[in-house]
Amino acid sequence: MTDRLDMPPPRRVACSRCGTEFSCTGSETCWCAEEDVRLAMPRDEEDCLCRECLRKAAAAQASR
Description:
Strand order of the largest sheet: 1-2
Protein name: Cysteine-rich CWC
Organism: Bradyrhizobium erythrophlei
Mean pLDDT: 82
Radius of gyration: 13 Å
Order of helices and strands: EEH
């Protein structure tokens, strides 16, 4: 089991699509790991997406 003291603190991220700020732990305990959708990792010029934009991107991908 991983000791929480060994984990880096969550980083503040601005969504690459809408600019909404949120926290990212960059681990399997991050909120995005709870989502049913899986998308490719962001490109170099992008960072993570907020929950709403992640869901919209997944819906757009599924409708292709």
